[in-house]
Task: structure prediction
Amino acid sequence: MVSDTAPDLVSAQPLILAFDTSAAHCAAALVRGEAVIARRDEAMDRGQAERLLTMLEEMLAEAGSGWAALDGIGVVTGPGNFTGVRLAVAAARGLALALGIPAVGVSVFEALADRPGEVTITIADKRGRFSQAFHNGSPLGPPSEVTDEASAGPSRADTVVVARIAARRLATASPPAPLYLRPADALPSSDPVPVLLDDA
Result:
């Protein structure tokens, strides 16, 4: 028998929009508690900057919701593509500021480790392998590079999991920041910084 208070309990859960552009995809989920209201996952090598906000608006419209209904934003902070991570984090911070709600950053490591017990997550890319240990979902230290052939699991975060982690952290959220395991490949220009007319 379903309790008469069940709808109230569901509606009391925060409504979280989480998204990820850290690799060759644009993914998002709209989640309230255990209910997954909408989700998208579109593969794309480029174009995330043009697609992200439109995709989020489409999801909200299809769910019969809107920006004002959100209680928080969840965003994947990396590791991943340098530009993609910067895009997602900047979008999350901008939306949070405009809507007056918290934005919560969740790393791929944290999303993959969100379960009871002790677990070590290893992520590999073309330049190496990094591991991070967790206990009951809490990190025991920062990610560190590993030189052995430790088995590496998936390097993508599930945006539904990201949304649920964000919901638990709303009260203690600080502005999300990118997680870079290495510096960017591109070096800063050696040319002098141009003088802006406003500063002249």
